[in-house]
Specification:
This is Metallophosphoesterase. This protein is of the alpha/beta class.
């Protein structure tokens, strides 16, 4: 009898956790951050961005409709995408929902899209994914999305400016089990030198290299990739990263190194391990504030 009761209790716990995970995958939390800096020009004081990452082409229909409604309530100045909105893995790829969502967003707001490892894989492995990258890219262009594939765009308002750069990092920096140190000068060679006279935003999918991003010159970095650590434990944080690192340092939230800031999205979707616990899908709202 005790064994039966134990089995029933374990089954109920499993069903409860499964239900919680499904709820957290299908609903989106809106988390807000404020970033202060004396380097933000007066014209960009209060500049508001919606930040998203790691959709993995999920959330068709009702969930993404609710997300669009939440974005309209914010009235952002721009939408920043920190990569992996598509899914490309083991020869399968999806991007139709990403194109639909980006069309809806770009109709209302400027959208700046930095690439993640899934977009990069889809474009790099043409022998596996065929014309998928070209089809996705052309969909982004028709929608009016600005793709930042190791390039920058500068927004100017009078004498003030913000530069936005998108980093498409080499696949070797995404290897599982081992975090490869970033090669000296890699960011300079890949992106060019960061300007020191303008506030600089970097869209860098992996948060693992925050120190390198800050050293390069990024004042504010938006990242994702870690899916919030998949399962978040109270008082500890994220459990595991996509490269199978336990308790990753930068799984979700706002981080500082001196005057440099990184904000990591917990992501909007899942892939492979389709679990979220204590880790609801999230949309970020980030406001810039000029301080003296």
């Amino acid at each position: 009898m005790a064994l039966i009761i134990t089995g029933i209790v374990l089954l109920l716990i499993f069903l409860l956790l499964f239900a919680c995970s499904q709820y957290e995958r299908k609903h989106v939390a809106v988390r807000e951050y404020e970033v202060e800096s004396p380097d933000i020009g007066e014209a960009f004081d209060g500049y508001t961005m919606v930040v998203m990452a790691d959709l993995h082409d999920e959330g068709a229909g009702r969930r993404n409709n609710r997300m669009m409604a939440a974005i309209r309530r914010v009235h952002p100045d721009a939408v920043m995408v920190a990569g992996d909105m598509v899914m490309a893995r083991k020869g399968r790829c999806r991007y139709a929902e990403t194109i639909r969502l980006m069309k809806r967003l770009a109709f209302r707001y400027p959208v700046y899209y930095g690439l993640g490892n899934h977009e990069d894989r889809m474009g790099r492995e043409r022998e596996v994914y065929g014309d998928a990258y070209t089809d996705w890219y052309e969909g982004m262009m028709r929608a009016g999305v600005t793709i930042l594939d190791n390039i920058s765009v500068t927004l100017r308002d009078g004498k003030d400016a913000i530069t936005i750069t998108g980093l498409n990092m080499d696949k070797s920096y995404y290897h599982k089990f081992h975090l490869k140190p970033m090669e000296d000068g890699y960011l300079d060679k890949t992106l060019g030198f960061a300007r020191g006279d303008e506030y600089h935003i970097l869209l860098a999918h992996s948060p693992s290299y925050f120190e390198d991003y800050a050293r390069w010159g990024a004042d504010l970095t938006f990242s994702g990739h870690y899916h919030g650590g998949t399962i978040r434990l109270p008082g500890i944080g994220g459990l595991i990263s996509p490269n199978l690192e336990l308790f990753p340092e930068y799984s979700r939230g706002k981080y500082q190194k001196g005057k440099k800031t990184m904000i990591v999205s917990g992501g909007l979707g899942t892939h492979s391990v389709n679990i979220r616990l204590g880790n609801m899908s999230e949309l970020l709202v980030v406001r810039l504030k000029r301080v003296s």
